[in-house]
Amino acid sequence: MVSFSPAAFEAFLAEDDDSAVVMLNLLRFAPDGGRERYLEYLQMAKPILARFGAKILFGGDGLPVLTTGQAQGWDAAVLVQYPRRAAFKSMVDDPEYQIAFKVGEAAIADIVLQPLRHIEGGV
Q1: Do residues 75 and 35 lie in contact, with contact meaning Cβ atoms separated by under 8 Å?
Q2: What is the tens place of the pLDDT at every residue in 25-48?
């Protein structure tokens, strides 16, 4: 099941909302058709994302992990840019998105949502 950490979500929304944020989605698909359901979810979600000014920057299948340690590979990774944190919140609350979300939720066995911001003075 996909659920937000209430404390982390509140802290995310409480930070300055004056610049774009990129959401890293690490996905492990449910067996028996999870990947196909996720592609269905994407088709439903793309026009909703656009309505909130968000765009998919990258989506790709995970390849074998190259590092040692406890790292596990992911089936896919998606980077979605939102113009503001408030746009992400508004999208999550949107009734049309809630319908699409149920399809996406059925597709996923495990997920990590990691907000990212640009490194100041970096890349």
Answers
A1: yes
A2: 999 999 999 999 999 999 999 999
What does pTM read for this prediction? Answer: 0.91
Q: Which class for 64: exposed (0-12), middle (13-18), buried (19 or more C-beta within 10 A)?
A: exposed
Number of domains in the chain: 1
pLDDT at 42: 96
**Domain assignment present for 69:** yes
Q: Residue 7 falls within a domain, yes or no?
A: no
Cβ neighbours, 10 Å, residue 37: 18
Contact between 91 and 49 under an 8 Å Cβ cutoff? The reply is yes
Read off the CATH number of the domain in which 109 is found. 3.30.70.100
